[in-house]
Amino acid sequence: MCYSRLFGDCHLFFRKANSSDQSPDLDETVPLKESSVGDNVNESCNNHKLAFKSTEYEKLMESPTKSRRDSSNNIHQPTTFASISSLVRDIFRNDLKYPAATTQSTKSNTPSPTLDIKLSSSSNPTKATTNNSNNSLTNHHPTCNCSTFNGNNNNVNRLKSNGDSLNNFNSKRINRIKIKDEKKLDTDDDDNNDTNYDHNQGVKSSHNHYDDHSIQANFTKCFYPDKKSTSEAPFCGMDSKEWRVRGKEMVDYIANYLETIDQRRVTPNVEPGYLKPQLPEEAPLKAEQWDTIMEDFNKLIMPGITHWQHPRFHAYFPAGNAYPSILADMLSDAISCIGFSWAASPSCTELETIMLDWMGRAIGLPDKFMCFAENSKGGGVIEGSASECILVTLLAARYEAVKQAKKQEPNAKDTDILGKLIAYCSKEAHSSVEKAAMIGFVKLRILDTDEKFRMRPDLLEKSIQEDKAQGFIPFWAAITLGSTSCCSVDPVDSVGMICQKEGVWLHVDAAYGGSSLICPEFQYLLKGIELASSFNMNPNKWMLINFDCSLLWVTDRFKLTQALVVDPLYLQHSYSDKAIDYRHWGIPLSRRFRSLKLWFVIRNYGIEGLQKYIRNHCRLAKKFENLMRQDERFEIMNEVIFGLVCFRLKGSDTLNKKLLSSINASGEMHMVPANLGNKYVIRFCVCSQHATEDDISAAYEIISQFSANLLAIIGSEESMAALQQQQAVIQGDLTGSQQQQFTKQESQKSSIEEKEGSIEIKGGLSIDKIETTPEEETKKETEDEMPDEVIVFDRKINTSLKYRRSFFVRMVSDPKLYNPKIVKALSCSSDQTDDKDTGILSPI
Ligand SMILES: Cc1ncc(COP(=O)(O)O)c(C=O)c1O
Q1: pLDDT of 470-489, one tens digit each?
Q2: Ligand 1 centre and the CA of 510: distance in Å?
Q3: Where is this chain compositionally biased, Basic and acidic residues type (predicted)?
């Protein structure tokens, strides 16, 4: 029995499994006109949004012809056809791509190709998705229940099936796929024995079975009837044969890149907009060869890369990229399941739940955060970022707070309650906390810290009482275990006790520091964690996992999900009540298979291997701290607990800005600044996966050398004279010819630097200006300890090439300094800050 449908140039034939009969029963195929099908499907989809039920599917399988055509060959169940046709589209892989031009030519010159899908009840379905220009699948979806596609430019809404149909689909496994030239349908059995590629051997071999390779080869034959194999097909996209070659090449490329990364500049030597003139205005019409693409990558893209894995990259925090993690992502990308529900890919969900319990236990979280612990309502989930973790906990706490407030005042409006909600964090909290409050439309009180940059519980307590007295409702507080600026650790226990007493949801943000807890010697930092409602950490920072992988645990998963559940029928399935559906635990619906990389890395390193890695970073940070402490030019500004050391040259902020910008501009090393206790400090973070003592010594040498150069220049009489001259230029004291002479000298210098293609500063002085807020600018001009001439020098340098070039190295990590322009805009906006004295930020 066959079902067929014409997709432009393609007939699709569906056959019920019949192990003894592998040939199509042509008499029962029903070629349909694309236009009529498209129209019917559209209409049908509009009328029957959820029409494709398992029972219908079964019925169709039982008596297809009856239900599908009348005496005039008109279709009576277009809905079911659409479901099946979309099924077909799902079972052909995306990698079967056809260039638009070639496909068009098949319209006029070549016979219509035929896709032949056999259905059987045996296991191991072969899944694939067709994709050609006439019938492009725009939304590759794993469950065949929520996609849209275009068929001959008609938008055809995919029918939405429920869990039953999905299960039925599984029971009616599709395990045979064959694509043939329509001309050859009558010789179908011959094709079963056709010559196909043995990709392991790279040579042709004979198969009796349809497999992925024969699908590819046969499909090629459909569209390129004169060609015998994929290798002979006109070039388009990448077939699996080429993939095997290119994939291996890429692995070598990556290994070479990482092995020789130390020979590169850390930061790129490009200016904003460098790429635009080098790429065509429009996307290429014709397919391009892979070699050309990679050549362009090397020539155009690589020069604009900041090398985060470079041993002299000491900015921000580490970006994990262990090999097993890269491999896991590769596999996950290939599987390409979108695990928004258990049914969408059971192992994707189940592995995630188990990994979160593994990790939770490994870092010493109590049972109440675990999914599988007895009597626990808790559990963990992988989110895309720490910012997302923070936001969803604020939203969950907000939901709960509004619910509780309505119990007290049933007639109160949600909006009135929302206006009273107030959240808390310290000055050192990450900017994502501020962002979460903005998105959540709640007030945020930002509290001062103690001498170690930790939240002050006494201040929290006082603020809560004051706010309550004013009619506010304290509902959420975020503390940090390893702050971004300086890795300070807020006291979980004392803050936790206050939050518990006041019914405030306490969230612990351990985005970076959390990974340290895998070592038992750091777990003392968790004291009081049982008082928290949620906790997040980023293994993609400091646990060797590639971005993205942010872990969030909650003690009450129902409180989390009640704020986020929206449950359209098409996403429901028959196990909804028994299984976790992670789409309710976060903002996006679609989710990558991220737990795979956790699983690979944890197993491949073992907890011991991960501990070793963390301890090495902490030990090296201590080494760096010691080197700096022994050098009397420097001071250490933070308590070094993890892999981060904050230091500064003894002297002004300006001096330190110059030091950092000089180092960054050199491309030899990369660090970012922070603002600690109103002082500009330089953050040195141990980031490289394989960092060694030599790397630390080398880093210290670079900093030391640049500092010596800077101090020498600042102190030299010669530079003083130069500065005076520059000052005169700026103030217009020079005569016209003197000015011309000066400008000429300066532009010559700039063009030499341009030719050299790098911002060389050793032996000279290259200075970037760090953008400042208006307040900082004023402070700098009035209070700076440095002589005036340095400021003058700064002003002059603002106009220089170096200043323009340094844009990309002016990225900063301090939460309050992310984008000075935004800070400036915010400080100008009277709406943003309700009360500068109280430190409360209001969303309106
Ligand atoms: C303490 C802390 N929290 C949150 C974040 C934000 O992380 P993400 O980029 O995953 O949103 C960072 C980033 O560095 C951080 O250091």
Answers
A1: 999 999 999 999 999 999 99
A2: 8
A3: 57-71
